[in-house]
């Protein structure tokens, strides 16, 4: 009986010790604060509001009503043609010198982040002299002139009466996407462009006064006699800057993993933990991430981004 009592007492002591260890680890973990944000935020969304023109346009909306500022023509949202949904933008040029446009309100895009740029376009039997979807940048630095990134459509719109995706024209057209990035410049510099045959664009931070974002407007442009329809315009980040801050005591490791548990970034601290650490990792925009923090006591705390919703 005495032996059983001693064994029971020993087991109780061990249980209390394990409880205290677990409680201590939990207390340490609770003292760890993890803050995670991303710019652009996740999940990634289309930066072009009302991208298929199903909602009203006008001065108080994202898309401002368009028109022809030279020659004769008309730009309207129509219901008789659409790639998806029920509406699209139709640009009808009625004279050889016709030039018209529809544009958006101002918005911001991040620098040094690849942006997926795409849209669908259809031409009537008579192809207008020109057509462009242009992302015009509006620098805060007034010494830098306004210019833009122009997606050319003349090479892809060669089959009249058929909706064609800018980034993926049918094989019988034998054409690639063509984008001209007009380089930032001051008025005393010549105008130059950087061509690309993909639909991914990047606004270099060092060319825009090292700013984190650039103000832009999107323009739909048509020139000359003929009819063009535009629909389903997309501007979406392919990557994002994941920014995290960890505060607490005795942190030994910070690890960033994606949804497949692949380590994106890892920081180890020995005797150099200062009580707080902030970092930034450029990650893919079509994934989710976990920040894992470990302490000297063996405690571990996690933070998910984007936060999981019930």
Secondary-structure content class:
mainly beta
Number of continuous helical runs: 1
| Percent strand | over 45%
User: What value does the Rg take, in angstroms?
Assistant: 28 Å
Ends: how far apart?
53 Å
Q: Percent of residues in helical segments?
A: under 10%
Helix-strand string? HEEEEEEEEEEEEEEEEEEEEE
List the helices and strands and how they pair.
Elements: H1 2-30, E1 33-39, E2 63-70, E3 73-78, E4 88-93, E5 99-104, E6 107-110, E7 115-123, E8 130-137, E9 147-152, E10 164-165, E11 178-182, E12 193-196, E13 200-201, E14 213-223, E15 226-237, E16 239-247, E17 251-258, E18 263-268, E19 276-284, E20 289-295, E21 300-305
Antiparallel strand pairs: 1-16, 2-5, 3-4, 4-15, 5-14, 6-14, 7-10, 7-13, 7-15, 8-9, 8-14, 9-11, 11-12, 16-19, 17-18, 17-20, 20-21
Quick structural summary:
The protein is mostly beta strands. It is built from 1 helix and 21 strands.
What are the main properties of this structure?
1 helix; mainly beta; eight-stranded antiparallel beta sheet; six-stranded antiparallel beta sheet
Question: What does it look like?
Answer:
This protein is mostly beta strands. It contains 1 helix and 21 strands. The strands form 4 sheets. Strands 2, 5, 6, 8, 9, 11, 12 and 14 form an 8-stranded antiparallel β-sheet that branches. Strands 3, 4, 7, 10, 13 and 15 form a 6-stranded antiparallel β-sheet that branches. Strands 18-17-20-21 form a 4-stranded antiparallel β-sheet, with helices on one face. Strand 17 (251-258) and strand 18 form a beta hairpin. The two termini are 53 Å apart.
């Amino acid at each position: 009986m005495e032996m059983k009592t001693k064994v029971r007492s020993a087991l109780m002591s061990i249980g209390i010790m394990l409880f205290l260890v677990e409680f201590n680890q939990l207390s340490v973990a609770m003292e760890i604060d993890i803050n995670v944000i991303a710019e652009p935020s996740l999940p990634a969304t289309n930066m072009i509001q009302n991208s298929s023109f199903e909602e009203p346009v006008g001065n108080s909306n994202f898309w401002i009503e368009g028109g022809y500022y030279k020659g004769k023509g008309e730009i309207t949202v129509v219901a008789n043609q659409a790639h998806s949904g029920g509406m699209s933008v139709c640009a009808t040029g009625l004279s050889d010198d016709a030039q018209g446009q529809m544009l958006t309100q101002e918005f911001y895009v991040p620098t040094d982040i690849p942006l997926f740029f795409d849209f669908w376009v259809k031409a009537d039997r008579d192809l207008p002299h020109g057509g462009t979807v242009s992302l015009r940048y509006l620098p805060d630095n007034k010494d830098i002139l306004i210019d833009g990134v122009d997606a050319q459509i003349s090479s892809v719109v060669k089959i009249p009466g058929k909706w064609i995706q800018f980034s993926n024209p049918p094989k019988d057209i034998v054409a690639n996407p063509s984008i001209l990035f007009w380089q930032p410049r001051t008025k005393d510099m010549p105008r130059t462009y950087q061509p690309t045959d993909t639909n991914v664009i990047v606004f270099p931070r060092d060319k825009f006064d090292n700013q984190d974002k650039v103000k832009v407007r999107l323009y739909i442009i048509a020139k000359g006699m003929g009819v063009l329809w535009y629909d389903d315009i997309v501007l979406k980040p392919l990557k994002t800057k994941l920014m995290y801050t960890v505060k607490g005591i005795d942190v030994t490791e910070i690890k960033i993993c994606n949804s497949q548990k692949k380590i994106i970034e890892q920081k180890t601290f020995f005797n150099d933990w200062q009580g707080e650490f902030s970092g930034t990792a450029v990650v893919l925009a079509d994934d989710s991430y976990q920040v894992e923090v470990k302490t000297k006591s063996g405690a571990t705390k996690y933070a998910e981004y984007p936060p999981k919703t019930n």
